[in-house]
Design goal:
mainly alpha; 6 helices; 65% helix; globular
Length: 120
């Protein structure tokens, strides 16, 4: 999961390792609490991403064994593939955890106000 998270939230390079660890811990707890079909869908999507995505892109070994740039390329290609839908649950669960972090609002420029369109 850390290799996927690091690439998924990369901006000008890999995501901060401390943030990746935090997101992975939060996601594991969340998946454990959700349980049942939700956890199964997440784990299946993660398995598919870690194993099928590199094969789909003609890269070996497993996703976490690839360098950052290759993982980024593999993830983008996999997302555009017929199997890209399997990535949806992974993005959803990791995204929930990522955007819950206390530093995220400032990093993305959110001021805490409502998201309204400016009137002309």
């Amino acid at each position: 999961m850390p290799a996927v998270c690091e690439v998924m939230f990369a901006s000008d390079g890999p995501c901060d390792p401390e943030r990746v660890d935090w997101v992975c811990r939060q996601t594991r707890d969340f998946v454990q609490d959700v349980g049942g079909k939700g956890a199964l869908v997440f784990r299946a999507g993660l398995f598919t991403t870690e194993w099928l995505a590199p094969i789909w892109s003609f890269k070996l070994p497993r996703f976490q064994g690839l360098d950052f740039e290759t993982r980024l390329e593999v993830l983008e290609r996999f997302e555009r593939s017929p199997f890209g839908l399997s990535l949806l649950a992974v993005k959803l669960f990791l995204g929930i955890a990522y955007f819950e972090h206390r530093d995220t609002p400032a990093e993305i420029g959110f001021d805490g106000g409502p998201l309204l369109l400016e009137e002309e």
